[in-house]
Design a protein that fits this description.
Protein name: Transposase
Organism: Mesorhizobium alhagi CCNWXJ12-2
Strand content: 5-15%
Helix content: 10-25%
Number of helices: 1
Order of helices and strands: EEH
Strand order of the largest sheet: 1-2
Radius of gyration: 13 Å
Shape: elongated
C-alpha cells in the first residue's frame, strides 16, 4: 500500500507532497486502516 499527501502549497516550484509506504498483512479493512492511520492524518482528505 502506498499513500501520497498533496502539498499544502500549489505554487510552481514548491516541493511535492510527502509519500509513505507500508506492508499490510492480513488485508482486512481494519488492519489497512491502522497501517494508514500511523502514517497520515486520516481526516485530512
Amino acid at each position: 500500500m502506498a499513500m501520497v499527501r498533496r502539498p499544502s502549497d500549489v505554487t510552481p516550484g514548491t516541493r511535492a507532497g510527502d509519500e509513505r509506504a507500508a506492508v499490510v498483512t492480513g488485508l482486512s479493512l481494519r488492519v489497512a486502516e491502522r497501517a494508514m492511520e500511523t502514517q497520515i492524518e486520516p481526516h485530512a482528505h
